[in-house]
Automatic annotation (TrEMBL), chain A:
Keyword Transmembrane helix: yes
TM annotation in the entry: 12-30, 74-92
Domain of life, per lineage: Eukaryota
Keywords: Membrane, Transmembrane, Transmembrane helix
Protein name: Gamma-secretase subunit PEN-2
TrEMBL record, chain B:
Entry keyword set: Endoplasmic reticulum, Golgi apparatus, Hydrolase, Membrane, Notch signaling pathway, Protease, Transmembrane, Transmembrane helix
Annotated GO biological process: macropinocytosis; membrane protein ectodomain proteolysis; Notch signaling pathway; protein processing
Annotated spans, Disordered: 1-23, 290-310
Localization per Swiss-Prot or TrEMBL: Endoplasmic reticulum membrane; Golgi apparatus membrane
SMART domains linked: PSN
GO MF assignments: aspartic endopeptidase activity, intramembrane cleaving
Organism of provenance: Cylindrotheca closterium
Enzyme class: hydrolase
Protein family membership: Belongs to the peptidase A22A family.
Record's protein name: Presenilin
Length: 113, 526
């Protein structure tokens, strides 16, 4: 993992987040936003021993693309989850069975006292 | 128990005795006499200079200790406070009783109950503590053996499993208890989704680190300590205090005695080629101006005293990956033994196919493949650097081997690293300098945990004992850091703080609090 480029890591994190890990997308997007933009490596070739800036730009572009996908997916999933929470809370016992909840509501809560 | 309760001064790129060795090197370099204008000065001046240097060295050590203390005190305090809050507010009488029963069934060989006398209970608690510490010692030896024989996949896999269990199951239990106590209407889907995200991202952050900001990683390490401290606090009073005392003694013996497992682990981890072992240490950043005594201030320093830099041989030869040799068109002299299987296989298959793929360096008699595979590009070859040209220096950064290209004057030009496909990438030296001069101090996660256990137990009694224990633990930690800068070797972080904590807990509980209550009950003025 330590030998992967930044864009490859972003790609792997995006695919890993598809397994129900929106928090990973959020954390990775936060990291991309806060990290300093440093030259993570220009490719050297045998001919002329000159760095190929185009390859470096492609790496940065690819990384930004995957991070944008992570950010967009995190926003979509977060909105979907908040909508689910609102639906569950509003239609608490009307639709959903009590077994859906971690803690079942006590009957005493509905006496008004 | 997967966490170690020792404090070691882990250097990023130096040995434990770096400060002492640098000091000795500098002292040895001091000329006994200096000639100026044909006159020779007597030794007394140089002796005074050495004395002044020693005096200045102790000041820098003190300043470094102070910076280290300020860097580590914030996370330690946060962990202790959070653990105390968790123990006090995410518990009620039923959960405490239930937890105590479960812990007693799981860990107590000799049962402690209220019907026995105080002396008997203390004896039983000491015996139980001895058994638990023995198991911890045995597990530590197993870890040392795995590390010694570089079974890193097994070791890291086990630690990842422990982290996942801790963050997922124990953290989930804590979350479940909070839901029950505060009656949060949480559905099971949200509950398991939050737990799955918390545990999976935590393991990634702690063991991989890349792509996740350092603050998140540190937060997860603190969460790990808080969750484990919350569970360990379910031990009864006798077991908790005796276990803490026995762990302090174990830490003392394990780190300082020659046969101690933690001393062996520290020595193994201090080697230049030691693999990184994530998940055990909390790393705190020091300010850039806080320099470790004896460390070179400039990253351009080409002093050979920095141990992690493997300089070239006297005949200008160095081992570099084949990819770098091809990029710079450097002549290959020979192939090391560890690369012969990778490069040798290609030679055999190419010979059998009668294809003219090999480019033979006739002057050196070494066969280099024309179109090497990624594995061949990553394998090392011995090359000779040009006598009048630049240099290539092999060094280590964050456990990864990198190469620094320097010009003929020794100034670094760029940093080279080879990826898994055998491609050579260059980084600017500014980024390398920033990474090289990063100052960090590391504290074992076990120290966080047992400080938190002590403070949380004190918080269960009263706020006064909680505050007293927090302050003395921080004082003990500061004292340990001062001793560390004096002795220049790995020291245990638990003994001073834990012993002070236990002492002041009982003093506060038995004397200070009753005295304060009496003072408040009987005013001195009319």
């Amino acid at each position: 993992m330590s030998s992967l480029r930044d864009d490859e890591i972003s790609q792997k994190y995006f695919y890993a987040g598809c397994f129900g890990l929106p928090w990973l997308w959020i954390v990775h997007a936060m990291n991309y936003k806060t990290k300093s933009k440093k030259s993570s490596g220009a490719l050297l070739t045998q001919e002329g021993n000159q760095p190929e800036d185009l390859t470096q730009q492609e790496c940065d572009r690819a990384e930004k693309q995957w991070v944008d996908r992570c950010r967009s997916s995190a926003i979509v999933v977060s909105i979907a989850w908040l909508a689910w929470v609102l639906v569950v809370q509003v239609f608490l016992t009307d639709i959903f069975p009590t077994e859906l909840f971690v803690r079942t509501a006590e009957q005493g809560e509905y006496t008004g006292w | 128990m997967p966490f170690q309760n020792d404090y070691r001064r882990q250097h990023d790129d130096e040995n434990e005795n770096q400060g002492a060795s640098d000091h000795e090197a500098i002292v040895e370099a001091a000329e006994p006499s200096v000639e100026t204008n044909g006159e020779t000065f007597i030794d007394e001046e140089s002796v005074e200079e050495e004395f002044e240097y020693d005096y200045a060295m102790s000041i820098s050590e003190l300043l470094y200790s102070t910076s280290s203390f300020y860097a580590i005190v914030v996370p330690v305090t946060c962990t202790m406070v959070l653990a105390a809050l968790a123990v006090v507010f995410i518990n009620n009488e039923d959960t405490v009783e239930q937890g105590a029963q479960q812990m007693a069934q799981a860990y107590q060989i000799l049962k402690i109950d209220s019907e026995s006398s105080v002396g008997e209970n203390i004896g039983f608690a000491l015996a139980n503590g001895l058994i638990m510490v023995s198991v911890i010692c045995l597990m530590t030896f197993v870890i040392v053996m795995l590390y010694r024989f570089e079974c890193m996949k097994c070791l890291i896999g086990y630690m990842m499993l422990c982290s996942t269990t801790l963050l997922g199951f124990l953290g989930g239990h804590m979350y479940w208890v909070a839901i029950q106590i505060y009656r949060f209407p949480v559905d099971k889907l949200s509950y398991f989704l939050v737990l799955w995200n918390f545990a999976a991202v935590g393991v990634l952050a702690i063991f991989f680190g890349r792509g996740v900001s350092k603050g998140i990683t540190q937060g997860y390490l603190i969460s790990t300590s808080v969750i484990l401290a919350w569970h360990l606090d379910y031990f009864d009073e006798y077991t908790t205090w005796t276990l803490l005392f026995m762990l302090a003694l174990y830490d003392l013996c394990a780190v300082l005695t020659p046969c101690g497992p933690l001393k062996a682990l520290v020595n193994l981890m201090s080697r230049d080629d030691a693999p990184e072992m994530p998940g055990l240490l909390y790393e705190a950043e020091l300010p850039p101006e806080a320099r470790r005594p004896g460390r070179a201030k400039s990253s351009k320093d080409t002093s050979p005293s920095i141990n992690n830099r493997m300089a070239e041989g006297v005949d200008g030869t160095i081992e570099v990956p084949l990819a770098i040799a091809r990029v710079y068109n450097l002549p290959v002299l020979s192939i090391p033994s560890e690369s012969e299987t990778i490069l040798g296989t290609f030679q055999a298959s190419a010979k059998s196919s009668n294809a003219p793929l090999l480019r033979t360096d006739e002057s050196n008699g070494v066969n280099i493949p024309e179109n090497p595979t990624p594995a061949q590009l990553n394998s090392n070859v011995v090359i000779r650097l040009p006598q009048q040209g630049g240099r290539i220096e092999k060094t280590k950064r964050s456990g990864q081997i990198i190469f620094i290209e320097r010009d003929r004057h020794g100034a670094p030009k760029r940093v080279l690293n080879v990826d898994r496909l055998g491609r050579v990438f260059a980084e600017s030296t500014e980024d390398f300098e920033n990474g090289e001069t990063s100052n960090t101090i590391r504290l074992g996660l076990g120290d966080f945990i047992f400080y938190s256990v002590l403070v949380a137990k004190a918080a269960q009694y009263s706020f006064t004992t909680f505050v007293a224990c927090v302050l003395v633990i921080l004082a003990g930690l500061g004292g340990t850091l001062v001793l560390l800068s004096v002795f220049h070797q790995a020291l245990p972080a638990l003994p001073i703080s834990i012993c002070l904590g236990i002492f002041f807990y009982f003093v506060t509980r038995l004397f200070v609090e009753p005295w304060v209550e009496n003072m408040l009950m009987k005013p001195y003025y009319v």
